[in-house]
Each structure stands twice: as structure tokens, then as C-alpha cells.
Automatic annotation (TrEMBL):
Enzyme Commission code: 2.4.2.8
Keyword Transmembrane attributed: no
Protein name: Hypoxanthine phosphoribosyltransferase
Primary localisation category: cytoplasm
Pathway note: Purine metabolism; IMP biosynthesis via salvage pathway; IMP from hypoxanthine: step 1/1; Purine metabolism; GMP biosynthesis via salvage pathway; GMP from guanine: step 1/1
GO cellular component terms given for this protein: cytosol
Organism annotation: Nakamurella panacisegetis
Entry's Gene Ontology BP terms: GMP salvage; guanine salvage; hypoxanthine metabolic process; IMP salvage; purine ribonucleoside salvage
Parent-record interval covered: 35 to 216 of 216
Length: 182
């Protein structure tokens, strides 16, 4: 959906460019999972919901899907470093090859925390696939196997990414107009 004319400053990543990158990421991940039991995709709600659905459908191998909801931002535009579990996984992940699917790495605090948390549950492996990363905002280094796009620190929305819960429904990634949050 797109009823946000006038609220966005620009398109950062178009729908076509996003979708092509997701196919490339899916092929790269699949190349490391040939002949395995299906990897378990852990979608980090809510931001990664669009990404995981397109990613799973682009994967040329079977996968299973789980959801975990964590939140680090609340309604602020900068990271608090506080991570809360809002919804935990429904299943045991011991012995499974887990792929954490995340929309964006900003400070890295969410993924760093989540990786440690899931590691304690005895998976066979954990890899991370992140669609976006803001290299200049990173406070904690996270070992990310697959990254879609490195982007500037501007406030980006769309394709799952929100500002006060809005804009997740955009099919592309845009720059939020400064007048919307200044
Ligand atoms: C956003 C985004 C990532 C995280 C990245 O989630 O979706 O999960 O922040 O920031 P970090 O690297 O600084 O931790 P948010 O906490 O806003 O929850 P949401 O996915 O429900 O929007
Ligand atoms: Mn998120
Ligand atoms: Mg958010």
C-alpha cells in the first residue's frame, strides 16, 4: 500500500531492486544448505515480516518458519539498547540450523542480544541474514553472514520498517521526510 505521498523525502531502494537482492540472498543461503534438513527461519517481528515472506518464497530449498518478537526502540527514533521479548519461539530449536531473518542492523544491539539468546538453546548453527545495515550506526559488532544493502544513517521506512508503527506496508524502502519526525 502507498498512501504516503508527501511524507517521504525519497525512494532509497525500489521494489525491483529489493526483490532482485532477495533472490540473490536466497540463492547464497541455499548454497550453504544443500542436502540439509530444512533450515529454520526465525523472523524477527515485526520489522522482518515482509522480508521473511519474500525470502522464504525465493529460497530454492525447503525451509520452516518461526517468529520471535523483540523490541529495542519503542517509539523513539534512536536505539535504547533495551531488548524485550514480546513473543518467544513456539518450538525447541536444539539441533536445528537456524537462520535469523532481520530487516535492519542499526546499532546491532537487537541481533547481538538475540544471537546470544538463541545460542543458549543448543541449535546446530545460527546464521544471520539482514536485508539492510547501517555501518555508521553500529555499536556492537555482529557476525552477519548475509547482508543485502549497506545504507546511510538516514531515517528509513517501508518494507517492514516503521516509524511509530507506520510505513511498514510500503513495498519499497524510502527516506522519511524530516518534517515527519523533526
Ligand atoms: C528495529 C528493526 C531491528 C532493530 C534494529 O526493530 O526492525 O529489529 O530495530 O536496531 P538495532 O540494531 O539498533 O537493535 P524495532 O525494535 O523497532 O521493532 P519492530 O521490528 O517491531 O519495528
Ligand atoms: Mn525489528
Ligand atoms: Mg520498529
Amino acid at each position: 500500500g502507498h498512501g504516503y505521498v508527501g511524507e517521504l523525502a525519497a525512494t532509497l531502494i525500489t521494489q525491483d531492486v529489493l526483490q532482485a537482492k532477495i533472490v540473490a540472498l536466497a540463492e547464497a543461503v541455499a548454497a550453504n544448505h544443500t542436502g540439509d534438513t530444512p533450515p529454520l527461519l526465525v523472523c524477527v517481528l515485526k520489522g522482518a515480516v515482509m522480508f521473511v515472506t519474500d525470502f522464504a518464497r525465493a529460497l530454492p530449498i525447503p525451509s520452516e518458519m518461526e517468529f520471535m518478537a523483540v523490541s529495542s526502540y519503542g517509539s523513539s527514533t534512536s536505539s535504547s539498547g533495551v531488548v524485550r521479548i514480546l513473543k518467544d519461539l513456539d518450538r525447541d530449536i536444539s539441533g536445528r540450523r537456524v537462520i535469523i531473518v532481520e530487516d535492519i542492523i542499526d546499532s546491532g544491539l537487537t541481533l547481538s542480544w538475540l544471537h546470544k539468546n538463541l545460542q543458549t538453546r543448543g541449535p546446530a548453527s545460527i546464521e544471520i541474514v539482514a536485508l539492510l545495515r547501517k555501518p555508521e550506526a553500529v555499536k556492537v559488532e555482529v557476525d552477519v553472514a548475509y547482508v543485502g544493502f549497506d545504507i546511510p544513517t538516514d531515517f528509513v521506512v517501508g518494507y517492514g520498517l516503521d516509524f511509530n508503527e507506520r510505513y511498514r506496508d510500503l513495498p519499497f524502502v524510502g527516506l522519511l521526510g524530516e518534517h515527519m519526525y523533526a
